Amino acid sequence: MTVFFNDPPNTSGEPLEISPEAIAIHTSNTYTAYSEDLDFMWRWRIYRDNKMVQEGCSLTLDASRRAVQHVLSFFNVSQLHAQ
User: Fold this and answer.
1) What are residue 23's DSSP bridge partners?
2) What is the CB neighbour count within 10 angstroms for residue 68?
3) Helix (H) or strand (E) run with residue 38 in it
4) Regions of the chain where pLDDT drops below 50
5) Using CA atoms, how far apart are residues 42 and 49, in angstroms rounded to an integer?
6) What global pTM score does this model have?
7) What is the pLDDT of residue 54?
């Protein structure tokens, strides 16, 4: 189960505020993603060029990885069609 939030992205150009407990679950040239255990769920966040572009939550770390890969697949397909 994945739930998406509509928090505004980090557009201030300030350094990212990533919790020391956060685990990097994806790193590429364009995107990075981190997941953090909140005891009752795992919160994951995807950043593009140091700006948060998507946030969600999952029940497990593995589910967080799958959710992030799903969202990144959508982003990549969207970019292909925009060209």
Assistant:
1) 35
2) 24
3) none
4) 1-15
5) 23
6) 0.73
7) 94
